Amino acid sequence: MKKIIIFVANMNNTRFATVIHILTLLAKSPGEWLSSDWIAGSIQINPVIVRKELGELQDQGWVTSRKGKEGGYTLLIPGKDINLAAIYKTVKKTDVLGKKNLNPNPKCPIGKDMNKELEDLFAEIDETVFDALRHRTLESFVKQFG
Amino acid sequence: MKKIIIFVANMNNTRFATVIHILTLLAKSPGEWLSSDWIAGSIQINPVIVRKELGELQDQGWVTSRKGKEGGYTLLIPGKDINLAAIYKTVKKTDVLGKKNLNPNPKCPIGKDMNKELEDLFAEIDETVFDALRHRTLESFVKQFG
DNA sequence: CATTAATGTAATATGTTTTATTACAAATAA
DNA sequence: TTATTTGTAATAAAACATATTACATTAATG
């Protein structure tokens, strides 16, 4: 699947939950082909959303798909090779601390430098989250399920 | 200002940026009364938004206000006594990793436990962010400005 | 080779959240 | 008394997220 992404505005707030749910199901059934309809039934969301997220997971090289009868999706790599920071990055569209205001007043001595200072702070906090997620893997997450 | 909050649905994505901007301006002018209009002019957002955020900052006990001519807002406590985790908590409405899906399928062995597992993970990441923000203060943030 | 079932994706609709705006009562300085 | 400011409700507009419909394409299988 090839995509040229010009600009994606939407930050889907349930995307991390959705994607880790999808990956958990796939990791629990290695070698099997799960359909978007079946996966959607577990999450109880629309199957088109599931297919879209699976498109991103294919872009990451984690998943492949098969069309037609008996088709579906399956994991290409073991869960221990997918860490949660990488999963988060596939769905993350805004900084952890949110968005900056677009036009702080350049004539105000504070306003003119605000976004530069926030840039540094926001980047640092994002890194903190990545660090915390990096040492966790899909495998360790999946192991928690009975 | 007393409020009974039944349920607040809105998570304003620029709220952290807005609130830290407001607090920075107040901290840079100790003892002065800044109007919501003047503050809004620095951020270049609507003054009503500024007054709403200042309402929350008053609830925290950090700020007080004065109505009427020559009125405005001023800081009640020094910037070193306000840490960024506390600021984040005043505006935070969702977990860092986002929202959970509402109704994972209880008949699915994965679906039925998903939100419990996500709950733990999401709480842990939130704590990580609080920890990173806790050792920074408004004072240290403000000092960065020329 | 017709049928069935699945992905991939566009287009559209609906719902939710965020931000801005309008309006005005209440307060207060001068 | 006038001018100015907060506090807040109500509404509007914009942005974002999710769901739905539709259908071309692909592939297994009887």
Task: Describe the protein.
2 copies of one chain form a homodimer. By secondary structure, chain A is mainly alpha-helical. Helix content of chain A is 50%, strand content 5%. In chain A, strand 1 (63-66) and strand 2 form a beta hairpin. In chain A, helix 1 packs across helix 3 (47-59) and helix 2 packs across helix 3. The model of chain A is unreliable at 1-12 (pLDDT under 50). The interface between A and B is large, with 51 and 50 residues. Chain A binds a DNA duplex (30 and 30 nucleotides) through residues 1, 9-15, 33, 35-37, 45-46, 48-49, 51-52, 54-55, 65-73.
Please give a handful of descriptors for the protein shown.
homodimer, 146 residues, mainly alpha, 6 helices, 50% helix, 5% strand, elongated, DNA-binding
Q: Which strand order does the major sheet of chain A show?
A: 1-2
- Report, as a whole number of angstroms, the end-to-end distance of chain A: 34 Å
What profile does the largest beta sheet of chain A have? Answer: 2 strands, antiparallel
Give the ordered list of helices and strands of chain A: HHHEEHHH
Shape of chain A: elongated
Question: Biggest interface in this structure?
Answer: A-B, 51 and 50 residues
Overall pLDDT metric of chain A: 92
Fraction in beta strands of chain A: 5-15%
Radius of gyration of chain A: 18 Å
What are the segments of chain A in which pLDDT stays under 50 over at least 5 consecutive residues?
1-12
Number of strands of chain A: 2
